[in-house]
Amino acid sequence: MNGWWRRVAIALVTVLTIVLGYTLVFSVGMARLEDEPISFAQSAQVVVESLTTAGYGGYAPWESSLMNGLVLAMNLTGVLLVFIGLPLFAIPLFRQALETAPPESSPLADHVVICSYTQSEEILSQQLDRAGIPHLFIDREADTVSELIETGHNAIRGNPEEVETLQAANVADARALVADVSDQTNPTVILSARQLSEDIPIISVIRREEVGSYHQLAGADNIVQSRQVLGNDLGRRSLSSIAERLEAAIEVDTEVEITEFLVEEGSPLVGDTLRESSTFDRMDLTVIGAWIGGKFVVSPDPDTVISENMILLVAGEYESLGPLNARPLPDPSQRDTRVVVCGYGTVGQAAAETVAAAGYEATTVDIEPMDGVDIVGDITEVETLREAGVQDARAVVLSLNDDIPTIYATLVINQLAPEVEVIARANSPDTVWKLYNAGADFVLSLATVTGEIIASEVIGDRTALTPQTGFDFTRLSATSIAGQTLGELDIRAQTGATVVAVEREGQLITDLGGHFTVRSDDTLIVAGTDEAVERLRPLLG
């Protein structure tokens, strides 16, 4: 029973109870106080006439004060029902009944059908909007659907597990379907979708790694394990930053510094686009990449707006980033090879496994004793962190399911070991700025990472490097493309890889534009996935 009918039922039961109660009392009063017994039906008639102020028939006047008081009470009750019951119950019910019910079908075609609505799907929706791809939400709750429509989304009400609902969503003509309801529900959604289309690409978002095979058996084409992906990326981050990886690819002796810095609140960069900002020119800085949401973008669009807590990868010869009001991220390369991983759920286990696979030591901490946990304790307590040895660690990875203790632990770690890099998981995108303000050096939101990964699967954007895709910097000879400009080559569009720097005659050149002409003795430093680099090699001969 939905909210509308529940309110109707409550109102009817309330009125009926009042009528029956007064009828019984009036009948007894007429017999004992007025010495004029009447039937229950006659009593009910008088009560209804009193409550509706329609008159009293032949029973007035009454001799006893108690009967007059009873009739007066019935009159007052009738007035209260008119002046209170109507505004509170009747009018809202009529207004609600007249409002248009949420739609249960859609005419959209070549769209993405999204089964469920969470913060992850909101991130996905933003990415699809930017790509100009129409999409449709399916949700069981009428209120959720109405809110989605009010905020400009396409949405219908229905159960995504039912074939009829997916048919009403025009799944047969959709470009993709995303199932993100639950680990147990998604397979049913997938099976129903396969009844309508054998060809539609289906993406299923799972919480536990072990259920992935069942979703594939049901017919899912892609499985998104965002918690596993997030843990892997947090672990990789604790091993080396993007700046370190780029520096490792550079062989020439140069004074150009490669730095990742966090744009803090109050920075003069905030609100400017990369194209508009004159600060980079004054300081002779070149923006090579940026962390935008849950993905790293190489050579971001010049119209990218710089926001608070954006991490920029820059190259240049500078003395200080003070004028930018920006915080350089720590360089863990000079510290111990041990990483402390706090929280040993799916994300924490993936982070610890990534650290161990790289030959580093992972010290794991959790409030619950379990296999694989080295230290049992509360990470918001100084004693637990001291026992874990965070003061001497290379980095601390916070991978908790709750953002509140994560924020608190960040504050404690920054006081206890201010030089240690704090890498944090945020469950909600709204918590990211709080963690940065608390002193975290690198934060990834689970919802953002999930939405970005799904978007990359649907859109197929090879230039957006999500945690799932991974990438590295590679050195390649430019002999076969000598004499051509980077604009003519259009390497990024053709392969997904991006030239971020060129080594020439012992110098490192990072300020590259479309008019930059490649020489035969140049060495290109390229950012991209393994697949992108392999696509580039034939182009370079």
What is the CATH T-level topology of the largest domain?
Rossmann fold
Largest sheet: 6 strands, parallel
Total domain count? 5
Radius of gyration: 33 Å
Q: Helicity, in percent?
A: 40-55%
Decide which structural class fits the backbone: alpha/beta
**What strand order characterises the main sheet?**
3-2-1-4-5-6
What CATH architecture of the largest domain do you see? 3-Layer(aba) Sandwich
CATH homology superfamily name of the largest domain: NAD(P)-binding Rossmann-like Domain
Mean pLDDT: 86
Put simply, the count of helices is 19
Instruction: Estimate the strand proportion.
Output: 15-25%
Question: In total, how many beta strands?
Answer: 22
Rounded to the nearest angstrom, the distance between the terminal CA atoms is 68 Å
CATH class division of the largest domain: Alpha Beta
Give the overall silhouette.
elongated
Could you list the spans in which at least 5 consecutive residues all have pLDDT below 50? none
Describe this structure in words.
The longest helix has 34 residues, at 65-98. It contains 19 helices and 22 strands. It has 541 residues and is α/β, with parallel strands linked by helices. The protein has five domains: 3-98, Helix Hairpins, CATH 1.10.287; 112-224, NAD(P)-binding Rossmann-like Domain (Rossmann fold, 3-Layer(aba) Sandwich), CATH 3.40.50.720; 242-328, Alpha-Beta Plaits (2-Layer Sandwich); 332-459, 3-Layer(aba) Sandwich (Rossmann fold); 471-539, Alpha-Beta Plaits (2-Layer Sandwich). The protein has a six-stranded parallel beta sheet with strand order 3-2-1-4-5-6, with helices on both faces. Strands 11-7-10-8-9-18 form a six-stranded antiparallel beta sheet. Helix 12 links the parallel strand 12 and strand 13 (361-366). The protein is 41% helix and 19% strand.
